[in-house]
Amino acid sequence: MANVIDITGLPPERILFSPSPLAELGAALHALSEPGHHPGLHGWVTATNAGLKTDLADRLCEADFLWRSSRSDILLPARPGATLAEELDEMDKIDDERFVAAAFEINCSPAYTRPTPSPLVDADERARVREMAAARGPRQAAFTDRMLTDPDGLRVWLRRLLEECEQAFFGDIWRRVSIQLAADARHKTELLRHKGLAETLSATSRALSLEDAQDGSGSGSGSTRILVDKLARGRTTAFANAADPGVTFLPTSFGWPHLLFGHAPGWRPVLQYPVASPELPAPAALELVQQRLEALGHPMRMQLCRTLSRGPHTTGELATAFGITSPEVSRHIATLKKAGLIQTRRRGRYVLHQLDLQVVARLGSDFLEGVLR
Known about the structure:
Helix content is about 50%, strand content about 15%. With about 375 residues, the protein is α/β, with parallel strands linked by helices.
């Protein structure tokens, strides 16, 4: 379960780690609109929402499909600026067709990895976008109509909205978190320079890894790929944007548990990753989560887990308790053990099995983090 970024032949200096005020504002707006994704931010979300002026809160509701279900690519700059104003200036330079297509391609497009026509020029795409927006509510539908009929006016409105967010709450946030994010980006840049990309990706997120695939000729040539462990599948290249090849990594203090991967056709790949902190658990591999859920899906293994949760038992004891043969118990135990759900230890000539309660207790959190990642 991996998204792939082909970086074959990419010079290390084309891999950029940098904080982005616009991306962090997008992460903050997402947390405000979906607090259930971010239990550690409930206090901040409650206080911030309570302090918003009614007019600003209403306008944020109108535009929330840009950051609620996922994040529009226009909010993930490939070349971050030092200030929000600088990044908004760059956003203003995106042509209308590309801007409007990007605004809808994640939430509304069934094929994010394939080029789709802009709803400004394609009637079918325009009708589909309007229908999707209408399902979200009348305010979102009105916002969409304005974007389709007056994109220039809507873009001025959107920029003013983001600037008001900076004045209302985000300016204070950015002054507080930008130092940490800049320090993290510098650390990753130094790690990349001295230790290489594989170690840098491992330090960035346990959901990121590097794969070198040899071509079989013995020449040592082949492809080099960054793997992003997410349920949604995608494939792109660091040369997706021919005018600006490379990959951009944006640290965020608001992002966990999300690991955002922007890779629309023609856009430079961008990854937004949560900065490491002691309270953040290491993400479990999605294949392991699936393996554990499948292991628990068998009714006999559920019964065995009930007994093994109460204390250690031998294979013979379990066979007698459930009226099945010892080989049958061994096969079920092997499946649970392979999934990491069982601890086994030897005491003299006896082998005792016991359910790993901490692993099972984290399974729900691992699953939730996996689907939100």
